[in-house]
Amino acid sequence: RIAYVNGRYVPHATAGVHVEDRGLQFSDGVYEVIAIAGGRPIDMTGHMERLARSLRELRIAMPMPARPLRMVMREVVRRNRVRNGIVYLQVNRGVYRRDHPFPPAAVPPSLVVTARSGLGPSAAVTEEGVRVVTVPDQRWARRDIKSVALLPNVLAKQAAREAGAYEAWQVDADGAVTEGTSTNAWIVTRDGTLVTRPLGDDILAGITRHTLIALARADGIPVEQRAFTVDEAKAAREAFTSSTTLLALPVVRIDDAVVANGAPGSITRRLRELYHIHMAGAGGE
Ligand code: PMP
């Protein structure tokens, strides 16, 4: 395997950033994960826009213009022979003697790009659906920025796995679900409306979320962007959780409550189908 690190293509096994890299020392960096399906990137424009926004919000410079950046990603995908998988990109504020304030403007950001084969959970997991557990949302107040500071997400995901669940849905002080640790949370109400939390600084603007809303609306499925509580989710007709790697993954249990009849719902299945069509068609670029 090959990785790209600050201008060089290097063996993945020995690839690394400097010990004074601010990504290492302060988690002072942002990232993106982009799906590769049939050798092509999915929703690349949305990912590049979100990257630019995350960097702007943190006042980190773009490591290079968008076009060469896309070429680097294409090259890493090519060199790793990825047909179906992911490309990972991370930009850190750069390398400088450890000190909290920003380094001088002349210090360039660092850039790491990796790629690997394999996309999403097994077909069996998708067919059966998964369990989520709910945990208090302990993250900072700027979850709209795709920061690499993911410690609360890591701890919540680990708690889920130790409870035998696939994902943790994080819950705000009002008892409403914000999002998963690496996914956006959705329900389908009894009357067939798709519900997901509105964008704001309390959740990440998932690219899959954006695409699913567009696909649902085009298919005549009503969509409401509003907060929903854990209790409402437990009583919902369907639930699922979405990300670049999982698409729309059916959720069939929330804590100890079985959702509907405990099998993936028809709207979730329909959205997965629409997403596959999207990936096979206009999804590239
Ligand atoms: N929320 C969080 C906290 C995430 O980390 C992710 C995955 N990066 C998502 C939602 C889903 O975003 P996307 O659909 O862009 O993968």
TrEMBL record:
Pathway assignment: Amino-acid biosynthesis; L-isoleucine biosynthesis; L-isoleucine from 2-oxobutanoate: step 4/4; Amino-acid biosynthesis; L-valine biosynthesis; L-valine from pyruvate: step 4/4; Amino-acid biosynthesis; L-leucine biosynthesis; L-leucine from 3-methyl-2-oxobutanoate: step 4/4
Reaction equation(s) it catalyzes: L-leucine + 2-oxoglutarate = 4-methyl-2-oxopentanoate + L-glutamate; L-isoleucine + 2-oxoglutarate = (S)-3-methyl-2-oxopentanoate + L-glutamate; L-valine + 2-oxoglutarate = 3-methyl-2-oxobutanoate + L-glutamate
InterPro entries, sorted: Aminotrans_IV (IPR001544), Aminotransferase-like (IPR036038), BCAT-like_C (IPR043132), BCAT-like_N (IPR043131), Class-IV_PLP-Dep_Aminotrnsfr (IPR050571)
Swiss-Prot/TrEMBL GO biological process terms: amino acid biosynthetic process; branched-chain amino acid biosynthetic process
MF-aspect GO terms: branched-chain-amino-acid transaminase activity
GO cellular component labels: cytosol
Required cofactor names: pyridoxal 5'-phosphate
Documented EC number(s): 2.6.1.42
UniProt keyword list: Amino-acid biosynthesis, Aminotransferase, Branched-chain amino acid biosynthesis, Pyridoxal phosphate, Transferase
Stored Pfam families: Aminotran_4 (PF01063)
Family: Belongs to the class-IV pyridoxal-phosphate-dependent aminotransferase family.
Main function: Acts on leucine, isoleucine and valine.
Descriptive protein name: Probable branched-chain-amino-acid aminotransferase
Organism: Roseospira goensis
Upper lineage: Bacteria, Pseudomonadati, Pseudomonadota, Alphaproteobacteria, Rhodospirillales
